[in-house]
Structures are given as C-alpha cells and as structure tokens.
Write a structure and sequence with these properties.
By secondary structure, this protein is an all-beta fold. It contains no helices and 7 strands.
Length: about 140
C-alpha cells in the first residue's frame, strides 16, 4: 500500500514552571530564595531517510507529541529538560502548514534534519529574581508553551 498524503498534528513540549522556595536550616538565619528553574520542553525534528519511500507509518497516527519539561524544585534544583523527538520521513517529503498553506519543510537530501516544532523554554525560579533591593522575591515564571 502506498500513502503519499497524511494529516497529523504536531505538538512540541511546554517548558516546566519555575519554583518559589526559601532556604530553611536550623542554624542559618535568613537563608534566602532557593527556587529552581523549570526544564525545557521537547522539540520535534523531521529527518529525511532514504530507506523509507511511503508515509504509511503515519496513516494511523493522528498526532506527534513531545514531552513537557519538569518543574523546578527547592534548593535551586533545576527541572529536567525533555528529550527531543526525531521522526524519520521519506526523501521528497514536503511539510505544509494546513492553516496558512505555507511550506514548512522540503526534504531533498538523505539525512537532512529540520526543526518542525520548537519546545518551550522553562520558567525561572525565584532565586533568579533576587537583587540587592528585592532580597525576598515571591515571583516565579511559568514555562513557555
């Protein structure tokens, strides 16, 4: 069976949220902010493969979704970044945006790699917002979609 047109949804991962936390230990007075940053969301790359000649693998797949980044933690712990997804497509594949009919990628050579959906940036924790004027920030950023 030969399939030359498929319609799939591609969703990149969102970044993890930053954390609001404060350092607390028995003999340390005024420990200060210690909220960690969120991890980066996974991106989706398409890679041209000369071993494939049809889009049959994508016939029953409705969406390709990368994982989200983890949230930050206390004690300046960064959230884990999600792994990027590499999807193999046949050489000669043309990827278009359905809404705008704009060509996103055109694979002409084997091994050609193109970023199709970029993962979101992780949010900053409250430790990043500490300054000499604002020593106890109660602010953290959410991860970007």
């Amino acid at each position: 069976m030969f399939v030359d047109r498929v319609k799939i949804r591609i969703i990149a991962g969102t970044g993890g949220n930053g954390m609001i936390a404060f350092h607390r230990e028995k003999y340390i007075d005024k420990g200060g902010p210690s909220g960690g940053d969120g991890g980066r969301g996974g991106s989706i790359y398409f890679v041209a493969d000369s071993g494939l000649n049809t889009l049959l693998d994508f016939k029953f797949i409705k969406k390709i979704e990368a994982k989200n980044g983890e949230n930050g933690g206390g004690k300046n712990s960064y959230g884990k970044s999600a792994e990027d997804l590499y999807v193999k497509v046949p050489v000669g594949t043309v990827v278009t945006n359905e809404k705008t009919n704009q060509i996103v990628a055109n694979f002409k050579h084997p091994g050609q790699t193109i970023l199709v959906a970029k993962g979101g940036r992780g949010g900053r924790g409250n430790a990043k917002f500490a300054t000499s004027v604002n020593q106890v920030p109660r602010v953290a950023e959410n991860g970007a979609p």
